[in-house]
Amino acid sequence: TMVKSKISAPFSLTIQDHDDGITDDYSAVTTQTLETGSPVVFVPNQMFLASYQAIEEFGGALQTAEDQLSDQVQEFNSKNTIGETVALFRLFVKILVEYEKGPDSPWFPWLNSLPRRFNNGAAMAYACLECLLPYVSELRMIERGTSACFQKSAKLLQYTGVLQETTLVNVDLLKWAYSVATTRSFDLGDEKVIAPMSDMFNHGAYPNVEHQFDENGNLLVYTTQEVPAGSPLYISLGDPTNPSPIFATYGFLDESSPATFCKIMDKEAEMEELDLKKSDLLFYKDTGDISPAVWDLLLYSILKTEAPDAGEGFFDAFMASDEVTKNQYHEQYFTYTLQMLREHVDGTLQSLYELSAQAQSKDPVAFPRVPVILKHNAFVERTFLQVKDALDRMG
């Protein structure tokens, strides 16, 4: 069933019920046809919840907690940007402060409208690790670890009067505030900002609305293309070619994503040498296509170990974008690269079967995030099966 909310805007909120046990899907849908550049939502900056507000209100009272947070996060995840993490922590604190005020907070209606349960990595139980491939499990551990660091650092704020003890001993509340901060905010320079109402748009691989700020710092959401009446309104929450980071951070599967990371986790050194990112190493879900970077990475890892001189030659050609020379190496060693890729795909599929069986054995009442984990695993499985078919046709 579809239920429409009453919002004075050219869209309405809808709720789509699902039969798979996953949380209902809330989305913004147009109530009229919108031309390119049409305004959809205007949010005055006075409505923002922002990291800079915590500094304005609490100043140096946050410093000790932020120093501890920086040390902790750097220790378990050296790739984290400390400035971004501190800004997120300040927003997390601001959310908790307004939560403590209850109905006296001007943000109370918005806070009261938020989901009570999130399915992101920070909210998943440790038992969920038994159901996830290594890449997603790693992303989930980073989210959960960062959330734990926030909880530990926030406890120092009890002695400064910023937060109450009853808040700081409520682990579920702290996890909830972290999930709100991570899933509803966006970057504004070095700050983290939540603009109520603008946080109602879902992610899409092909977004049709964007954020824009006017000269006074107010937020305007506008269309980037014509959107027919009755159509969902989508923003971009991250890389549309790989749903796993979005899954770990936001807790949903982006089924509109055209591809997924190829899940090659044991070639980090070679990736760094070739300056490749996970977003370069893709398998495509509908065609089984394999991005050229995957072939390059595997061939380089083979040559580096088995034929160092050839490895140096391939590396030089790669860095020089010499496609002719690169292709000569690929043709010469194709059978080896193909075999390695087949073994990786077959091994990953076997792991997926086992992980999904593990997930299906769990009680969905005790582990309510199992359905979305199964959806993610099924998405990856379908993609890898397409790639397997493509490899089989190669001989």
Describe this structure in words.
The chain is 48% helix and 12% strand. The chain is mostly helical. The strands form 5 sheets. A 3-stranded antiparallel β-sheet has the order 3-9-8, with no helix packed on it. Strands 4-6-5 form a 3-stranded antiparallel β-sheet. The chain has helices at residues 51-58, 63-76, 82-101, 108-113, 134-154, 165-168, 171-184, 243-250, 268-274, 292-306, 308-319, 323-332, 334-360, 370-392; strands at residues 11-16, 25-30, 39-43, 49-50, 186-188, 191-194, 202-203, 209-213, 219-223, 234-235, 259-261, 282-284. It starts with 10 loop residues before the first strand and ends with a helix. Strand 5 and strand 6 (191-194) form a beta hairpin. The chain is globular, with a radius of gyration of 23 Å. It is built from 14 helices and 12 strands.
Quick summary of this structure?
With 395 residues, this protein is mainly alpha-helical. The protein has 14 helices and 12 strands.
Q: Going across the major beta sheet, what is the strand order?
A: 3-9-8
Q: What's the helix-strand series?
A: EEEEHHHHHHHEEEEEEHEHEHHHHH
**Main beta-sheet strand count, sense and barrel state:** 3 strands, antiparallel
Distance between the termini: 49 Å
